[in-house]
Specification:
The protein is of the alpha/beta class. It has two domains: 127 residues, 3-Layer(aba) Sandwich (Rossmann fold), CATH 3.40.50.2300; 99 residues, OB fold (Dihydrolipoamide Acetyltransferase, E2P). The protein has seven helices and 16 strands. A five-stranded parallel β-sheet has the order 2-1-3-4-5, sandwiched between helices. Strand 9 and strand 10 form a beta hairpin. The two termini are 40 Å apart.
Length: 246
Amino acid sequence: MLQFVLCDDNFNILLKLEKMLESIFINNNLDAKIAFRTTKAEEVLRYVQYNTVNVLILDIDLKSNISGLDLANIIRKKDKNVYIIFFTAHLEYGLVAYKYKTFDYIPKPVTVERLESTILRLFDDISTNPVKYLRLDNNKTIINEDTVKYIKKEGMKVIFHTDTRDYETYSSFKKISPKLPNNFVQCHKSYIVNTNKISEIQYNNNIVLFGSDNEKCYIGPKYKNNFMEVLKHGNFSNNLDCIDNA
């Protein structure tokens, strides 16, 4: 699910934008939500520091010492993949806005037709970008690959276990594996793990753990040697605190 963050100093405009976006999400069956909205630039900076954000929609003139352009500059340095959309009555900022790899620049007043065109184009852009996002099926369900801990095969279904929720789709490992980046490695006939999310491996018990909540999956004997070789030589152990070989 794509997480949208909105910021405009005018609360009424903010509410109108939120309603338009929710209508666009529903009418087009888009897997997205408004995760956060505010009239204050400082609150955006605090929010993005601790939460996943996929799309930022910002006014440029926020009537504060931090402008929408300043926000984009700060956040872009932290996250090269976030989509940034500006909307403003100040058309003279158009060329400057694109300096921050802006996805679109929408003049005020914003119409639902113009906004819908941009959002649909954004989803099309994401669906053709296999590096950062995974598209599960034809109903426009899109997940940020960095949030996926592991993928489990259960009968005719494949379940993507992410940081926030589970996503189910009728598919197979044979179909999804070619679309996955190389940090996703099969460790069991029923499990593919995101090696960047592993917190601990209990080698003797053949268990892989993820994060503080200790979610786990299993290592199958057929896959064990290859899986451990990948971890040793594949540079996918960013979050790996412990491999228990005792």
